[in-house]
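FIELD: query
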Amino acid sequence: MTLLLFLIAYLVGSIPTALLVGKFAFNIDIREHGSNNPGATNTLRVLGKKAAIVVLLVDVSKGALAASLPALLEADVDPLLPGLIAVIGHCFPIFAGFRGGKAIATTAGVLLVTNIWMFLAAYLAFVFVIFVTKYVFYGSLTVGLTLLFYSFFTPGLEYELIFSIFLLLLIFLHRSNINNFIHHLEPKINDKSLKDDRIPPKINRV
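FIELD: result
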């Protein structure tokens, strides 16, 4: 049952939301535009707010559903585990050639179900850091740092191990952003030049 639960969680996480929205609504592969990342931030930059909201809500729901599987299937499993399996599926989706997003939206869904206080700590820090720096990747890395710091105040060592690995995963997933930042190429979230490359919906295209 545990293996089946983890498999379902991975498959749920592997649903390539941004890729599907790009294909069906805009007739493009989102991975070939902007930062080439099939996540909500690149969707916002390339396809606009409406598409980004859809991607964000679905990606959050994937994490929430995965974390709810133990209750739904009456399995004695910490809901954080299938939630994190879904996050891995989101980052390395079998349905999209293992080229996925960067974990933040799906992790939010997991935490909304498993630990609302951890969610609030991590994502308030996320919003604050982006507001101050205007760099999304800074906010994303802050999520990992906040969760690791929070885990030091939870009983047992398993959360410390889980979120240490999670932080390393975030650094790996954002390695191109870090490299771009070092070379002064990373765009800020309010960079107006990015809006010039937005792609109109398929219904408006000839």
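FIELD: remark
The chain has a mean pLDDT of 90.
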